[in-house]
Amino acid sequence: MTSYAAAGVDIEAGDRAVELMKTRVARSRRPEVLDDASGFAGLFDASAFLRYKRPLLATSTDGVGTKVMLAQRLGKHDTIGIDLVGMVVDDLVVCGAEPLFMTDYIACGKVVPERIADIVGGVAEGCRLAGCALVGGETAEHPGAMGPDEYDLAGAGTGVVEASEMLGPHRVTPGDIVLGLASSGIHSNGYSLVRHIVATAGLDLEQDVPELGRTLGEELLEPTRVYSLDCLALARETEVHAMAHITGGGLAANLARSLPPTADALLDRDSWTPPPIFQVLAGHGGVPQEEMDRTFNLGVGMCAIVSEADADRALALLEERNLPAWVLGQIVPGTGRAVFR
Length: 341
Description:
This protein is α+β, with helices and mostly antiparallel strands and 341 residues long. The chain has helices at 11-26, 67-74, 80-92, 113-130, 191-201, 216-220, 228-237, 250-256, 276-285, 289-295, 311-320; strands spanning 33-34, 43-44, 55-63, 98-108, 133-141, 151-162, 177-182, 208-209, 214-215, 240-245, 263-267, 300-306, 325-333, 338-340. Strand 1 (33-34) and strand 2 (43-44) form a beta hairpin.
C-alpha cells in the first residue's frame, strides 16, 4: 500500500519530537508571548512597543553552516542550536536592538524525535541566554533529498530599538576606543576550511589535544558565545557608539562595516593572544596569517566602539559580567578601514 510513511515521511515521529521539545522551549518564554490555540503561528504582544517613541524593528536570519556536519559526525546535537541563536541575535544587537523572539527551521532526511528535541532544546537554551523567546518553528522531513542522519537548520529573529538610540557608524568619531570581546572559540564560521584541514591532515576528532585540554571534536563543537545581554547592558550603562559582530570575513572586514567613511580603526595585534585552536588549525593546515585573518574570528567574537571617556567603565562592566574584554585599538581619521598596526 502506498503511503506517506512508505515514501519516507513519519508523521508520528514528528508529533513525538514536538512533545519532547515542549518543556525545553518553554524555558525561553517571555511575558509578551501569547499562545495561539491552533499552533500555526507564534504570537507576541506588540503593546510592549508603546513605551517607545519611535520603535524600529530589526530582523536577521542565518544558519550555522557546515558546523552541523561535525555535530552529525560526532553524534552531539544539543549545542548546535545555541550556535544558531548566537549567529542571529548577535547581528541584531549590533544596531542596539533588543532581541525579542526567534523562529527556527530544521530540514532533515529522517525525523528522529530525540535528535530533533536535542537540536530545538539547544535553540531554546540559546534564546534563554539571549533573553528572547522561541515562538515557533518548523521541522521538515526530506527523504531522498538528505540522508537519514543529515540535517540543516536556520533561524530568523526580530528585535526592537528606539530610533534615537540606534548604534552605528554615524556615531563613531576619531578618539573612540575599540574593545575586543572574547569569543568562545571558532563560533560558527570557517568550518569548510576546518573540515578540509581535519580531512587532509588526517586529524582524529576524538583524540585529546594537549594544547586544547580536551578532544579536537569537543573544541570544534564549542558553542558560539551569545553576547546580546552583555552588549545591551553595555549600551545601556556606557556610551557605546557602534558594535561589530565578527563572523565570516574576519575581524577587519566586519569591523569596517561599523565605521564611517572618514575614520579608520587602528588595531593592535599584540593586544590579545588567539585561543590555541587557531594555532592548531594553522599549523596542521599550513594556513597563512592572511587567510586566517579573513576566515576566522581569531578569538574576537564581537567589537564595541565606545567613547574614550567611558572605555574603563565599559571594561569594568564586562569584567563584572564575566566576559573577557580588552582595548583592541582606537578610531583615527581615515577612509573607513580596519587595519592592524
